[in-house]
Amino acid sequence: MKIKLAFLVSLFLSVQFANAQQIEGAITAAPTIGFGFENESLLIGAHGQYFFKDNLAGHFGINYFFPKSSTYTKSSLWTMNFNVNYYFDTGDSKVKPYALGGINLAFWKYKYDNPQFGGVVIDGIEFDIPETEAKSSGTEFGLNLGGGADFDIGKSFVPFGQLKYVIGDYDQFVIMGGVRFYVGG
After folding, report:
1. Three-class SS of 61-77
2. Residue 44 φ/ψ, nearest 5 degrees
3. CA distance 137 to 3
4. Does the reported pTM lie above 0.85?
5. Domain boundaries, the chain
6. What is the pLDDT of residues 125-166, one digit of tens each?
7. Residues 43, 68 contacting (CB under 8 angstroms)
8. SS3 for 161?
9. What fold is seen in the domain 2-184?
C-alpha cells in the first residue's frame, strides 16, 4: 500500500514539473523493480536523485528483496545505497548513460525453525540438530560499482535501467529498472 501511495504521489508531482530537464538542481524520484543474483530474489525499491551539476547526481535508494523460505528456514534482505551517478555527455542523444559508485548497506535476517526435536529425517537418515530454533541477523558493508542509462522519451518521466555489482561481505550482482519522475528543481 505504501509503495502504491508513493508511486501516485510521484506521478502527481511529475505532472507539476513536466518540462524539467536533467539539469543542476533537478530532483527525481523512482519506483524500481529488479533481481539480485546472489540471493536469487526479486526486489522492489524507491530511489531518489539530486543533480549537483548537469552530469553529476547524488543518489539514494532503498531495495527490499522478497524473502526466501524453505522447509525449516526463512531469510530476508533489504539494502540502502548511497551512490554518485556520473552522466556521460552524449549531446542530444535520447540515451543518457551513467557510471555509478557508492556505498551499500545490506540488512539481513535468517531464521531456522525445526519443530522436530532431536533431528530431521531425510531419506531415512536422521540428522541430529540440537537446536529447534535459531535466529540471526546482521548488517554488511559493501561498495557499489556499475552503470546504467536513462532513456529520454520526451515526457515528464524517464525510464532507466541499471546494472551494479556490490563488493563486500555480501557480494551480489543486481539488475534493476524503473521510471524516474522529476519532482523538483
Report:
1. EEEEEEEEECCCEEEEE
2. -125, 155
3. 25
4. no
5. 2-184
6. 665 555 566 788 889 999 999 999 999 998 889 999 999 999
7. no
8. strand
9. Porin (2.40.160)
